[in-house]
Structures are given as structure tokens and as C-alpha cells.
């Protein structure tokens, strides 16, 4: 093997490693962006105290989980509902 053959093999190997590193970095960035966008929606539900503490804007859809006392649900007209 000549010196030029060895240097061309090394150059190809470097390009291959660089390509793999760029692919890996791209996948890490895409995953980080997706998780950052979904951070509040990853939870299956919010507790009522979480929803109150986060000051959820009117019209925002989310799931509320918890226990409701029997016969404590009160309808105030429209979409307003109260419960214990």
C-alpha cells in the first residue's frame, strides 16, 4: 500500500465518523426539542391544585384527575362546574 492509499482511507474514515457524529447530534437535538415542547403535556392528567397553581388560561384543554365527593357536583350554567 502506498502513502496516498493510506491517507485516502483515513480521510474516508474521518468523513464517515463525522457523518455519524452529525447524525447523532441531530437526533439528540430533535429529541430535546420535542421533549421541551411536550413538557406540560407529558403528564396524563393534572391535579386540581396543579391546574390552579399554573394559572391555566381560559379555553386551554387539559385533563384533571382526582376524586370527587358524591353529590358534590354543581352546574352553574354553560361550562362552569363546581365540585368538592
Strands of the widest sheet, in order across it, are 1-2
The average pLDDT score comes to 84
Count of beta strands: 2
Which structural class fits the helix and strand makeup?
A: mainly alpha
Set out the fold topology.
Blueprint: H1 3-37, H2 48-53, E1 74-75, E2 81-82
Antiparallel strand pairs: 1-2
Describe it for me?
49% of the residues lie in helices and 5% in strands. With 84 residues, the chain is mainly alpha-helical. A two-stranded antiparallel sheet has the order 1-2. The longest helix has 35 residues, at 3-37. The chain is rod-shaped.
Provide a concise account of the structure shown.
The chain is mainly alpha-helical and 84 residues long.
Keywords:
49% helix; 84 residues; mainly alpha
Amino acid at each position: 500500500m502506498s502513502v496516498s492509499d493510506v491517507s485516502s482511507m483515513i480521510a474516508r474514515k474521518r468523513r464517515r465518523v463525522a457523518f455519524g457524529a452529525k447524525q447523532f447530534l441531530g437526533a439528540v437535538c430533535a429529541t430535546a426539542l420535542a421533549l421541551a415542547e411536550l413538557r406540560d403535556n407529558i403528564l396524563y392528567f393534572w391535579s386540581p391544585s396543579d391546574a390552579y397553581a399554573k394559572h391555566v388560561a381560559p379555553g386551554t384543554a387539559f385533563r384533571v384527575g382526582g376524586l370527587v365527593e358524591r353529590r358534590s357536583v354543581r352546574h352553574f350554567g354553560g361550562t362552569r362546574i363546581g365540585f368538592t
